[in-house]
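Form 7-S
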Amino acid sequence: RISLPSSLLSESVCFKQEQQQQQSLTIREFGSSKNKKEEATLSYDERKAAAKEKRRQLHQTKVNRLNSLKTRRSNSPKDVQKTKFHSYFDTLRRRDEYLDRKARRCGKPWKVLVSAVVERLPVVTPDAPQWEEEYWEMKSMLMENSGKEFPMELANAGLSATSSMAGDTNAVYDRDDLLEQLKKQGFTPAPRETEADRTGQIQTLDRQLKTRVYLAIVPSSASSSTNTQQWSFPTVQVNDDETLLSAAKRSITSSIGTKLEFWTPSNCPLGVQLTPYEEEEDSEYFGTKTFFIKVQLDDEGTIEENENVVQDWGWLTREEMTEKVAVEQG
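Output:
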């Protein structure tokens, strides 16, 4: 046997690889020329049908791939709140449009009213839900067991030198512990439930501090714009020479006096409510069109009850307002 040097062996291997590459290129060129010759023999309609079939196969392959990539997000329900809102709002809008067309056919105008929605914002923070309480409890436990140790200068930043918390640099305090430490320093927290909440007094702003309350009145029979003695917002009829905002301010001053300070965030009404009169009721108006203007309480002030205009009044939450209206309407 004759042993060849390694250089000659490597040159022979490279030569064989070059021959294989040239053969494959020759086969590809022959195949492509063959396809071109076959396409040249086809008619225009046959080439068009073949191209269309190829596009159809590519589209079907894409659809099959997308169907195979189902994820949890694509299977979850979408636009739930949006659909719920449109199911309510679209029905109400079609009803209002129908009433407007009916009023024009009857040739009667609407009686335009304005209701002032006087709102007092929450005074204290609302109660934390159960999951949030559990979260802070777990976070306090984790920080106490595996938290980082900070230097004395950072741990006591912002604390007084006489504070009982200044000695422990690694202590972790939750809300209850911090409140206890503040009580030792003379801090007295405001009550979250007042005496008015326990007695059910509604003619005071010192109630339901954790939520929003709204001014509601029971108009007297002589001053009622809607001929009803029910709980409602201060409401007046709009004069020809005033705007909706001016009428809303007039409804407040005429009902509870001028000592209540308030401000209006916008001239645009919150919404509108159309209430047609009964068919047997003989009136020059087709019904009432009530616009609601939002008004926020700026300062507590005092309410001067006008007995000729207001029969009863109170600061009610949204749930209390809904409950009273539901009881009155049966």
